[in-house]
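Journal club prep — side note

Before the paper discussion, L.F. wants everyone to see what a predicted structure for a comparable chain looks like in token form. Sequence:
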Amino acid sequence: MEKNRTSQTNNRTGANSGGRSLGRLILQLRRLERRPQTFGSAGPLTPSEIHTIEAIGTEGGILMSELAGRLEITKGAVTQLIVRLEAKDLVARSPHPEDSRGTLISLTAKGKEAHAAHEEVHRAFYEQLQEQLTEQEIEVFDTCIDKLVTFLKK
């Protein structure tokens, strides 16, 4: 009986500790989401702007509806982001060659530069992570992130 209570206490302590850690992580991510960063010559970009650029990609044009799906946001929200990115000369709109109702969004040269700079930030982050963690710890980290993302999408 005493062993069972100790086990329950340890489980609650672990959950509380994990909850506090998760809370700190979420607060830090919220801070990062509000802080613009500069990527190449694009000037300061909000995280939503650079992630929109990342979702558009460099392979060519993407439909607004497909972009909304990739970002998991509404078409109206995508339109607002595209207007801001157009004003910064990072994206361009063009008519769809086969569907007159469709509009394709593609990166300008400046947008492609921002995309490449953002990829470099990610690469540098993982290099720093590899200096801090073992290969096995990185695998566990990646697995935990994947599971957390899946859990948060519920």
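L.F.'s comment for the group: Helices lie at 2-34, 47-56, 64-71, 75-87, 109-132, 135-152. Keep this in mind when we get to the figures.
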